[in-house]
Design brief:
The complex is a heterodimer.
Chain A: H1 7-11, H2 13-18, H3 23-32, H4 35-47, H5 49-70, E1 83-89, H6 93-106, E2 110-116, H7 121-130, E3 137-141, H8 145-150, H9 158-163, H10 172-177, E4 179-180, E5 183-184, E6 187-192, E7 194-199, H11 200-205, H12 217-228, H13 244-257, H14 275-289, H15 297-300, E8 317-321, E9 337-340, E10 342-343, E11 349-350, E12 354-360, H16 367-377, H17 380-388, H18 409-417, H19 429-434, H20 439-448, H21 455-466
Parallel strand pairs in A: 1-2, 1-3
Antiparallel strand pairs in A: 3-12, 4-5, 6-12, 7-8, 7-9, 10-11
Chain B: H1 4-51, H2 68-75, H3 79-108, H4 115-123, H5 130-141, H6 148-155, H7 168-196, H8 200-208, H9 213-224, H10 226-241, H11 245-250, H12 262-272, H13 276-301
Helix pairs in contact in B: 1-13, 2-13, 3-7, 3-10, 4-7, 5-7, 7-10, 10-13, 12-13
Amino acid sequence: MPDFMKAGVLTDPTADLKANPNFASVAKAYVDITPDEQKWEVCMRLSNRTIGFAMGAAVAALMTLPMVAGAADQTSGVDNGAHITMWSRAATQARADALVQAYNASHKNHVDVTYIPTDDYQTKVGAAAAASSLPDLFSADVVFMPNWTSAGLFQDLTARIAALPFAANIAQGAIAASTWEGKKYGLPFVVDLSVWMYNKKLFKEAGLDPAKAPNSLTEFAADARAVAKLGGDIHGTFFGGDCGGCGVFTWFPIAWADGETVMNPEGAESHLNSAENKAIYAIFRGMVDDGTALMPDSKTETGPTWTGYFPKGKIGIMPMPASLQGMANAALADEDIGVAPIAGVKGGTSTFIGGDAIGISRDSKVADAAWNFLAWVESDDAQINVVAKGGNVLSRPDLANNKYSATDARLVLFNSVAKNGQTPFAKNFGATFNDPQGPWLVLLRDAVFGDASKVDADNKAMDSSLNP
Amino acid sequence: MTSMAPATRAASPGAGWRRRHQLLGVAYAIPTIAFLAVFFLTPLVLVARMSLSSWPLLIGYKGLNFPKNFVAIWNNQLFGPAVVFTLEYTVLVTILLIGLGLGMALLVQEAGRWVGALRTIFLLPVAVGLASASLLFWGFYSPSIGPISPILEAVGVIHQPISFLQSSTSSLLSTTFLIVWKFAGLYMLILLVGLQGIPNDVYEASALDGASRGQTFRYITLPLLRPSLALALILCVTGSLLAFDQFYILTKGGPDNTTVTVVQLIYREAFQRQNLGTAAATSVIVLLALLVLNAVQFGLLRDPERS
């Protein structure tokens, strides 16, 4: 569930903000995976255990067959009309779907993709893994990759990746997150960064210079207060205050930009009660107290709709995923969408390098066909004609200057902020930061809405969650 | 004595028939036994074994570790509040559902002009799946896309948007509203069947004796409705103690972990923290609690005349 990027949902503005076009499908997916089904899958898996052992040898033999055949064409796999099943999370649906549709239109293979509600993704994969019913391909929020690669859910892609002519040009972050004990299990699929977006029209009305984005969190708050003075249903800012993943995605970079940390490098010790982080909470608390932040929405947002607010054109400035796909609408003209890198309390810039990695599941019997899709996703064709064209961050930084990015300075900014960005590492990430009952959300809510003096005690709970 | 000979002769075909009859009986029972074994006993044994074992979701069985899982539950700070909240919710929902169900059943028990339409309207929400209904209400309650607040504001009933899920009380009440909307019709149906099973001559007799409406309800309707009330009560209490979907979708246990139910904890242990051992141990505890509770309910509701 955790998607630690509940952010995700933000990635797909059309789904959440308008809530209409994709609402039905998201709703359906939600209903489709009631926990009963998951319990059921686990039960079946368990009752089938003995049979599973008996069939182990046969299954192993079956699984090696395609691998042997694959050796014939390590580079691009096979495109022979195979049906490939795939799971991806709803948060990144718009961008994932653009890739899948373009692939299906130009290849004999067919990728059947199912989008799972972001919050349920980890549990769904866990249940399917326990039942040996994983799809051929599935993507994962990069922070969860260590959990799944260490459990052996993916096939080893080391040789296949090495054979790609452009292997060295692929963004290494997702590959590093997908590497376990020296073997590479995944490639970048959707790159998701956090930036600040501001409404130039509201900036102008508030007497601010729409060409000048804030260079620090302090300026962010000043600009938000100026916009909030417009009154009515216009608000300075908005944030997902009941959504752990939102805090991770949009607030961690503020500390990083100041050169500070949120955890130690091993992910075993929380620094979220440091002076720096307390200063960040205090600034947001101030905007809650004086009504600059939209309330009570900021306090009640649990994640599903947090990216839906900015495109409605009533919020001055807020963090958003770095994507313009589906963003402009009747309430928010494309030229009014200003973007800026996330800055620290004092200055600097940073971003959360997130998004999805993708790999071939250990249960797949069409690994060569699945690899054909993966190899294509990383190719010049897909990166330029699908990803760049859609206004998104490339997983091939070498292609950052292309015919589409040249037309929009915002896309250049998206592709450039990553150099100061970070991806937090913690073995127990999901249960600490994304779990709605986890300790991070307790700390965040105490710091911003509740009793801020509890932050030090809450941070102790963080430490024990990081070291179970 | 004379009759012994024919009787013995008759016994051998008779015994064969009886044996065949017994075999047939066993054959009839086999599907049920198989279903029970596969869908009830096996999972039960597995859960019991899991609760005594270290069993990470993605790895599987890793050896016995009793009583570690149970100690972990004891040490889980969310467990106590979750039990209290689940009980609170159960009491609230049970009172509302049985009360409203009975009222609605009394309203629609007589044939009348609007009764057919009313019965249908009351029963319609029962046909909606709980997850779908929860998602629907999540949309209604959402400050971002929900239509209720804007409509009330436009009409002038309220001047500030209502926040349905902001506090623990409003979250509980909003969820309870959904459940009452969804299930009141079901309890109406159960109690209606009971009401219609009460013979008319009992009412006529009480009328002849000059009983008032209140007396009739207190001394005729309620006692004769006891079996239906018992069924409704047991269904309602058990269902509410196992509440999950509505809170999982509407509140996710928030705000600030104030609406976490026991089953949500089981789900969290299993799939969020990937620990099937503690999840199974919690399930075992819930199962035992339900067994005790249902036994008590059966005892209290048993018809005194029949026993």
